[in-house]
Each structure stands twice: as C-alpha cells, then as structure tokens.
Amino acid sequence: MHVCCAPCCTYPVTALQDEFDVELFFYNPNIHPEEEYRARLDEAERYAAKIGVTLYKAPYEVEAWHRATSSLKDEPEGGDRCEICYRMRLGKTAQFAASNGFDYFTTTLSISPHKNADKINALGEMIADMYTLKFYRADFKKDGGFKKSADMSKEAGLYRQNYCGCIYSKKEKNVRS
What we know:
This protein is mainly α and 177 residues long. It contains seven helices and four strands; from the N terminus they run H-E-H-E-H-H-E-H-E-H-H.
C-alpha cells in the first residue's frame, strides 16, 4: 500500500488487514520542504513499527517531481498537477510491487476529503494493467473513514500535517489561512 503519511494509513491498514497481509511503501517526491518530508517519513516508520507492519521506502526524488509538475504550478489543488503526482506515486508503487512479487497494490490517498477517489482508482487500475497487477479500488474516506483515521491518529499521538505536501498546496493553504 502506497502511504503518503502515518495519519492517512491508520484506517486503511486496519480496513485491509482482514483480507490482506498489508505492507507499506513510502514514495512521496512531492513533499516540501525536505524537513517536512523527513518528518512524515519518520512518523510513518514509527507508526509501522508500532503496529508491526513492514514499511519500504523509495528515494526522495523531489527534482523529478518538480520537472514533471512545474508547468502546472498555477493549477488548483485537485487539478492536472495532482493527477501527475498521483501517477508518479502509483507508478513507482506498482513498479515496486511487481518487482517484489506482490499481487495487489493500493494507496492511502483516497482517505483525504480533498482527493478524488475516482481519479485515483482509475489511474491505479490503468497502472496495474501495465505491470500485470491488481489494484485495490478504495475510497477510504467513505463511511466515516476520514473521521476514523483522524481519531486513530490522535489516539496514536501521530504528527498530523495541515497541507497535502507539495510546495503549491502549502502556498494555497497559507493563502486560505
């Protein structure tokens, strides 16, 4: 399961553990600044260890993310820039899953009320086909999933960030504040 941060994986992990042996994959070249990236990675590692789930991590490829998205810096959250970002993260997760003998992959991204689960799921299925994998379709925010995630995060004492992760979402959040 691609994980963007510890809080977003709380509920999805528990929702899938009865059906799957869940392992986590941290690949988030979008997170800015690097200190924020490190904070989210450290918290994901701490939480994975706490619940006894393996966490794999890919390199921090922020320059690749900037090259892929810089022409879309003025896009609003949820626009074409986000689709490129989803595609990068799901693609790297699928590549890792295929290379390591996994049958399925999914992502925690749909837990966010700011993310379009239909778009994420469609991309996941398209990418899964490219790697001969299955993508687990989910909208983890449904049926109170986002609230459950927030409650579980609070109970676990997890650091919960206040923006999606990229430099553009941080700027957008600061404008709204």
